[in-house]
Description:
Shape: elongated
CATH class: Mainly Alpha
Number of domains: 1
Strand content: 5-15%
Amino acid sequence: MNKSHMATRRMTEAAMMVALAQALSYVKLGEAPNGGSITPAMLPILLYAVRWGARPGMLAGFVFGLLQLIFDGAYAWGWQSMLLDYLVAFTPLGLAGLFRGRSWGVFAGTALGCAARFCVHFVSGVTVYRIIAPTDFLNRTYSSPALYSAVYNGSYMLPNTLLTLALAALLYGPLRRYILGEDLR
């Protein structure tokens, strides 16, 4: 394959994976009261990143975040929240691409991408939302904005991470050649 063909293939796969992620984002297995849901939507972005690398993966994550902002109802408290919770938060999913070509890369990449996304949501919760303590969530009262942000964002990011890891494990066998990019060589 020549460079032009590879670039076209990479962009086409990005469009397909972002579209699949957007479609899967409507399969909500749970929702937090102030934004955040449990969906299988991150998997296509993470698979794409592990296949093509961090830079294309981060671009796909950014585009997915933009679509989430536009079509998912955007729970936000101003432009800062829109920027952090959508555009910035989904972009680091592409960091999974740092593990490109490794047989265990999809698992380490999922952990890294999800942890980075959690960190962005955590910072947004502490800085943008600046909750007024005490705050009630999950039948507990939190007097620390940092603890509240960690618990709140962890309440949907941890299940999302575990769901994505489980789906990656189920699909690894049939998609191994795709994930490792063996069909590109």
